[in-house]
Specification:
With 476 residues, the protein is an alpha/beta fold. The protein contains 16 helices and eleven strands. Helix content is 43%, strand content 13%. The strands form two sheets. The chain has a seven-stranded mixed β-sheet with strand order 1-7-6-5-4-2-3, sandwiched between helices. A four-stranded antiparallel β-sheet has the order 8-9-11-10, with helices on one face. The radius of gyration is 24 Å and the shape is globular.
Length: 476
């Protein structure tokens, strides 16, 4: 053992092996236990959090007790987002190869912000972006960016559109999106300098999709008042109900009126991988830019989002930069260079997580998994629809459906309360975790099947629990 104040920070090869084995063993045991863990751990942890506040240790402590606390106490105090019963929010699961990729990235610690210091590694990331481009049927002019998530993807897209269409005159620029758009759209607009009163919320139709007539009307109205409509953000699968906006007509309108069309495909875009499902996302390849979230629809662990920009030059124009200490770069854009296409300079190596995962599984298996999730959701929605008291508000357009409870004489308030209780009651049973959403005045229950670990038996359990809990609630 080295003395506490030794300046040597390296661990010995034997220590590293032992620590690595111990972590790996616990992680694998954790994955093995996922099917039997409650779908939602105990989230009432304020007392625990207060007790956890601590100064950093002056002297290092042993790994094992820390792992005991992590795996035994702290990880269980969370929603079991990696488990098969996670049908809440938008699941993904977290494929194992990405964890191996992170271990490789972090132990080799190569610098992938600049292509010339790790050209082959950056090429792997470039390949990943090309794969995304091809799956989405975007043209060769496309450039993209791996981000930490969909929120940063939308942010970068808004900056591209703003620079292209508004230049220095931001104040009158107007962005349009539907009332069902993810809240990251308004947040990203604000971060990108588009103020709150310039984000216009467009009405939705009875299927929760943006209404093209309302959009057209709003654009023309704003033009008449001297404003500058510059961007529409549509959804390829909303978080609340899974609605896919009319992407083709929106692209037509944007082309005619010279607006930037961004599609938020954070939840839905990966279904475009499957030929059979492409008609559900008709028009998606026409967007000026597209958000994808590999940590949802490609089942990766959290921390990987992606953006594609049809005219790659627009993405480069807002991001390129250099410092006097950096080697001069060639003007050629044959090769991808991450820091010239995104806001980060020093960064991790997100490309390897996607690359290694796709290499180990192959595209066919990923497609099969996506098809399975869609099929499970469609079947489950059919069976949930047959449960007494359930009204399906949104059948699955992709792999998410939404519904509410009703009974003779029920008021909206009572239905909302009962539907809320349905979500918590089902979750309390421990087999699946469900969450709902307010859509207008109505609270909708929802089921989203997108974890790669969710298979038939878990969806059966979900339908069974909804049926049992609903029976105790209607008319109560
Ligand atoms: C998850 C989600 C986002 C936000 O993406 P993050 O990866 O959470 O930042 C945006 N839009 C939709 C439709 C989403 O489902």
């Amino acid at each position: 053992m080295l003395p506490d104040d030794s300046s040597n920070l390296e661990f010995s090869p034997e220590e590293m092996r032992q620590m690595g084995r111990s972590v790996l063993e616990r992680a694998i045991r954790h994955i093995e236990s996922l099917p039997t863990q409650p779908a939602c751990g105990d989230l009432n942890a304020d007392e625990l959090c207060r007790a956890l506040v601590e100064p950093p240790p002056e002297s290092g402590v042993a790994l094992e007790p820390l792992l005991d606390s992590l795996f035994g106490e702290w990880i269980p105090r969370s929603a079991t987002a990696a488990g098969p019963g996670y049908l809440a929010y938008i699941p993904g699961g977290g494929l194992f190869p990405a964890a191996l990729a992170d271990l490789i990235s972090n132990t080799t610690n190569r610098y992938t912000g600049l292509r010339h210091v790790a050209p082959a590694l950056v090429q792997l990331e470039s390949n990943v972006l090309d794969w995304l481009r091809d799956w989405m049927l975007f043209p060769p002019t496309t450039r993209g960016l791996l981000t930490v998530g969909g929120s940063m993807s939308i942010f970068n897209a808004i900056v591209c559109a703003r620079e292209r269409h508004l230049g220095p005159n931001l104040r009158n620029g107007v962005l349009y999106t539907s009332s069902q758009a993810h809240h990251s759209v308004a947040k990203s607009a604000r971060l990108a300098g588009i103020l709150h009163d310039r984000v216009k919320v467009v009405d939705i139709d009875e299927h929760f999709r943006l209404r093209i007539d309302s959009l057209e009307h709003a654009i023309h109205d704003d033009r008449r008042h001297g404003l500058v409509p510059f961007m529409v953000v549509s959804s390829a699968g909303t978080t609340n109900t899974g609605a896919v906006d009319p992407l083709d007509p929106i692209s037509d309108l944007c082309a005619r009126d010279e607006l930037w069309h961004h599609i938020d495909g954070a939840y839905g875009a990966f279904f475009h991988l499957c030929d059979e499902l492409r008609p559900l996302l008709s028009g998606l390849p026409r967007a000026d830019s597209l958000t994808l979230d590999p940590h949802k629809g490609l089942f990766l662990p959290y921390g990987t989002g992606a953006l594609l920009v049809r005219d790659g030059k627009a993405l480069r124009a807002v991001n390129q930069g250099t410092g006097s200490y950096m080697p001069s770069r060639s003007g050629s854009d044959e090769f991808y260079d991450p820091s010239q296409y995104g806001p980060d300079l020093t960064r991790g190596f997100p490309g390897l997580r996607v690359w290694l995962t796709v290499q180990l599984l192959g595209v066919k298996r990923l497609k099969a998994a996506l098809l399975e999730k869609r099929r499970l959701a469609v079947e489950a929605a059919g069976r949930v629809a047959a449960i007494p008291g359930i009204v399906i508000d949104a059948p699955p357009q992709l792999s998410l459906f939404a519904f509410h409870l009703t009974w003779p004489g029920a008021t909206l308030d009572k239905e909302n309360l009962a539907t809320r209780q349905l979500m918590t009651g089902v979750t309390a049973r421990g087999r699946v975790m469900l969450t709902g959403a307010m859509v207008g005045e109505r609270y909708l229950g929802r089921v989203c099947v997108l974890s790669f670990r969710t298979h038939q038996e878990r969806v059966d359990a979900c339908v069974e629990d909804i049926r049992d809990v609903a029976a105790t609630l209607i008319g109560a």
